[in-house]
Amino acid sequence: MNTHVLQSNEAVVAQEKDKMMSEERTHTLSVYVANRPGVLARISQVFSRRGFNIDSLVVSPTIDGRYSRMTIAAKGSYDGLEQIILQLGKLIDVIHCIDHANDVSVIRELALVKIRVEAEARGEAFQICEHFGAKTVDLTDHSMIIMVTGHSDKVDACIDMLRKFELVEMVRTGKVVMARGEEIT
Amino acid sequence: MNNEGMTGGEALVRCLENQGIEYVFGLSGGAALPMFDALVDSKIKLILVRHEQGAAHMADGMARVTGKPSVVIVTSGPGAMNTITGILTAHMDSVPMVVLTGQTISSMLGKDAFQEADVFGTTMPVVKHSYLVKNTNEIPRMVREAFHISATGRPGPVLIDIPKDFSSGPFTGDLFPEMDLPGYKPDASDPDEDALTQIAAALSQSERPVILAGHGALIANAQDALLALAEKLQAPVTTTLLGKGAFPENHPLSLGMLGMHGTAYANKAMVNCDLVMSIGSRYDDRIIGKAPEFCKKAVRIHVDIDSAEFGRMIACHHYCHGDARVVIEHLLPLVGKLPTDPWLAQINDFKRKYPLGYKKRGGLKMQQILDSLDRLTESRAIITTDVGQHQMWAAQFCKTIEPHTWLSSGGAGTMGYGFPAAIGAAFARPDKQVWAVVGDGGFQMTMAELATAAINKLPVKVLILNNRYLGMVRQWQTLFYDDRKSGVDLEGNPDFARLAECYEGVKGFTLKRAADIDKVLQKAIDYNDGPCVVEAIVEKQDNVFPMIPAGAALEDMLIDEPKSTTKLEKPTGST
Ligand SMILES: Cc1cc2nc3c(=O)[nH]c(=O)nc-3n(C[C@H](O)[C@H](O)[C@H](O)COP(=O)(O)OP(=O)(O)OC[C@H]3O[C@@H](n4cnc5c(N)ncnc54)[C@H](O)[C@@H]3O)c2cc1C
Ligand SMILES: Cc1ncc(C[n+]2csc(CCOP(=O)(O)OP(=O)(O)O)c2C)c(N)n1
Ligand SMILES: [Mg+2]
Fold it and tell me: Which CATH class is domain A2-102?
């Protein structure tokens, strides 16, 4: 299980692998933790000590009240992140930590976007909303709040389209993730 | 037992007794009063220190000798903060320890109350785990968990921060509660069969193997299994600084210590081996040098209880997760004698060509004193060291042949460690002679503990190798900074022998001439009514060799002092 065999004399292969390992990617980690004081601080220390930025972090209750779920999106190289996962796994209060690759899991995010929009331009805003399946959750003479949910890429795309209006404020929940089918999160 | 009318502090002390604790090391203060009060009626002996750092190093020394967690009790704020260097030292070297800190009352937390410090938060990066007590009745569970976590898997320090209202409050709970650690799996399961088979296969192909034994082999008490394995394979064994004692250094298969200041023959063996098997070492940067060059043509194997160490410093071909002793015992039946005769002959050649040595010309040599100490104690004493040149020479010249008799701060490299660690070791092993080998710089960081050693009449022998320099740093300045000395001259040193004698029951000796070495050391060995201090005035400018400059490859080891005309590049490695 813990045995990896490196092909000797295959420097090229190794170099390719090195490149892949050190390439920056966004990873979504799901960390299942015992609900104990300090657990969030311990987890964030594992990232900050290695100079990793956390892009988003969602802490939420689980079915079993003794545990919480932390969904953490972070950018970094694969080998850097692998160390982080191993170090997270060592924390006493962490039950498990899984790196979810996009293809085998459901990733969703919700954003609220407040835009400045006058009556004459509203039509276009509604069109954008409709296209992305977004909802208007507040409407005044001069502004509206749009709620968009979905995969982070879709949320990004919707927000990009809304930039033709003046964006006043934006709040995003950060990613939540769940493994598909029999896999555990 | 009757818990009626018990305070949290009394429950705490009862729990320590139930853990079999005989000694606690500490220093009191307001927030710790209830805990210290409870110690009055306990059979646990409180060792009052003179500085909390000393308490942590004493507990560390005791723990390294016994393999069991030792206990520190201190007050809040500055008391707790003073232990941090000691906690770091234990954390870096995987030493089990339980630190109990007093804290301001819970209703005052976060209000900058008197002597309040966020100890839970501040110590988080240097502990294996920690607790902030929220209710008196949870103290026994936390203590039980703390001991369990501290001692199992990869050991380390665990801290419990105890607000005074909970240590003084009424205890109405259970003294023997269940642990609740759903996320903690120290993993004592049997090692993976496939990994073992592959390692055995790799070994069977090897003609030039080296076993690299680390601190983990000692933590696992794997010395007997390791000896059996090395003899069965006929494979040489080198150890890390912290692995000294895992394999008897007087054994023909021993290569001594490898690494930055390891023996030339150990490092030569690493460069020429076709297989290296680390058992309980973490391939620290002080042993691998330039990582991509380390044993790059050899099959590399890593056995460790902490799988997070795998691939962290160097990539290996085979990993085996498990306890060092258990892994070796499983491996033994799968292997046989290897055809290593030519290899052992080559190693003996290295040993003949590049022996450890020193020139007797010039002033008194640390090496010669340590060599004599080794001879006079027949390598059987417990040796603790401080950090610096004397530490490296002690590692080279004081042979370690029994497990748990060599104590040194490796990962943190904490000056001030040696003397208090010797005190802890002396409490744990009254049957053993204990020597603290320290520098004139480091000793002055914790020498206040002379009082602690004196009142407890501990026959700890302190050998101060006084070169009137922060020698190791001076060596780097000499070699890599054109001998531009900056902040290394220890002018103002006291007369250490006289200083020692200011304490009642402490004896001081001074050693100035090579001809007196045996006589003076023997006097120290014969003085057992209390501690004694031997101050040796040694050569100021001597440098430790062999040396692999930090970040350089093992091939580029400097076996001896380079010609003064050679200009050395500044090291690229971390330190
Ligand atoms: C001035 C100075 C110079 C130094 N020079 C050198 C030098 O030349 N050579 C040298 O070797 N060191 C040197 N050091 C020390 C070095 O920095 C490291 O501390 C040391 O090499 C680490 O040794 P280690 O890996 O054996 O022990 P540790 O750092 O204690 O690591 C122990 C390893 O064993 C594992 N382990 C724990 N329990 C078990 C178990 N039951 N079973 C299996 N595995 C287990 C742990 O997970 C860990 O990976 C120097 C230090 C200083 C201060
Ligand atoms: C607390 C601490 N401060 C600084 C250092 C850096 N340092 C490493 S070795 C050394 C010199 C130690 O001098 P001394 O105790 O006299 O021992 P010597 O090297 O002279 O034998 C210093 C300052 C350290 N390891 N620990
Ligand atoms: Mg010195």
Answer: alpha beta
